[in-house]
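Section 3.1: Structural characterization of target chains.
Under the original work plan, the team committed to producing a structural model for every single-chain target entering the pipeline before any wet-lab resources were allocated. The record below documents one such target. The sequence was received from the expression subgroup and is listed exactly as submitted; it comprises 567 residues.
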Amino acid sequence: MSEMGQRPVPAPFTFHGGIHPPENKALTRDRPIRVMLLQSRYVLPLHMHIGAAARAVVKVGDRVGKGQVLAQATDFVSASVHAPTSGTIVDISPQPIAHPGGLSAPSIILEADGDDIWAERMTPWVDYQDISPAQLRGRLREAGIVGLGGAVFPTASKMATGQAAVRTLILNGAECEPYITCDDRLMREQPAEILRGAAIAMHMIGAERCLIGIEDNKPEALAALQSASRSDPRFEVYSVPTRYPAGGEKQLIKVLTNIEVPRGHRAIEYGLLCLNVATVVGIHRAVTLGEPMLDRIVTVTGEGIAQPENLQVRIGTLMSDVVAEAGGYRSEVDRLIMGGPMMGFALHGDEVPVVKATNCLLALRPQDRPAEPAPQPCIRCSLCAEACPADLLPQQLYWYARAKQFDRVVEYHLFDCIECGVCSAVCPSHLPLVDYYRYAKTEVWAREREKSKASQARERFEFRNERLERIKAEREAALNKKRQALAAKTAAATDDASAAPTASDAFGTHKPAPHGAEAPASKDAAVEAARARAKARREALDADRAAANEQPQVRSQQESISESDPP
């Protein structure tokens, strides 16, 4: 038996930068997961994942069962949406969603019937070893499984490794964001389900071992997974130093393997694949139970919540209902955040649905968070660079983003920024650095879209010109062919006329060519003869036509006479 399978050991490496903010996890870390009661109304956005939005396959008035597909994945990177309970589709229209800008998005509204009756479930595959990786990926796609660690990337797409040889699966149980404890409770309460899901994932990608990284401020979770994995030497449980953002993919990989995934590259190129612990539970439920992703665990916390706890919430539940389930708000709550205080964002209201990315609802009062001083000019102290876990130069990114020099922010690796908020947290000038980076990313994406549209328009224009030129050339070729055929026909007619025998030729006599005064007379005679022949041909043709017209008339008269005769 592997020593790694007997006890968690400290992670052997570290990563650049990071901070240790107040954890504030005591509010919910000892509150077991509780299943939230069934609600009467669910709002299901068609786009709650990275990639293409799903396409609705139901219509208003349809009766649906629990687990039924409501919206189908439309692309390789997309995820289906399922009914969280049985009921009736009452509307399909844009609805407010959880977004920093308070936007609306196309959504399906389901009115629950209270029966919670399943539609036909997918076939459970208990013996998953007998199922091919391609079939298992199809099951995950059918079940709408996405990453639950924050990125909500469709899991089936992530696990389509192609020709890459993946040797190591990494399970992310760090949960480094303050206040959030949903993964902690999941690891403590469902370690066996986590390992089953991990084993299925290993079978899918051909991994030989699984490294599980958990921050050392979660001793119960470490002990639970260490105990559950004791009999399987493929699993190695590591305690990771509590330092934000240890749960970042590249940071956790560095801590566990000492591999630094370079800029512009993916972990899979180095034989590594990283999944969140909640994601592999979703894999287990989809494969061995035949259940799509209908719910997730949400930490409902903050000093503004009457009874902070971890709830198992169905996707599409309104956040106002979730807060009410946790006892409602305390007085003076002025901010509701989806996510944690570092990477989350403030909501414009609570009448928006829980989506697959909702790991936490954080309600704060004014006295629970520090005052936000007015931003001051950057003093180039470099504290942000020292703390940046992605080893970037945040101050340079700030200057270029502020100056709208978007080519420069790309050169300084803007898209390697994981938006963890460490730079903003340590900035003595209180600059909202992450806001600048998000703005710059949005502008770069918008410009890329415009370039793409312009390129497509240019390609369409060039294709149109090529098509018109081709049509013109084809018409010219056809016209030339007709001209050549007409010329050949004319030449043949001329040859026939010149070769036609005269009466004297027919009787074997030959007259010498006329000379002198006889020549014009002979020419006139030839012209008259040609006219006579043409007239004779026309008369013969007219006679043939007349005969052809008379035959149907005669037949018609004969038929009418025969019909009038008595039998």
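Residues 378-490 form a domain with the Fumarate Reductase Iron-sulfur Protein; Chain B, domain 2 fold (CATH 1.10.1060).
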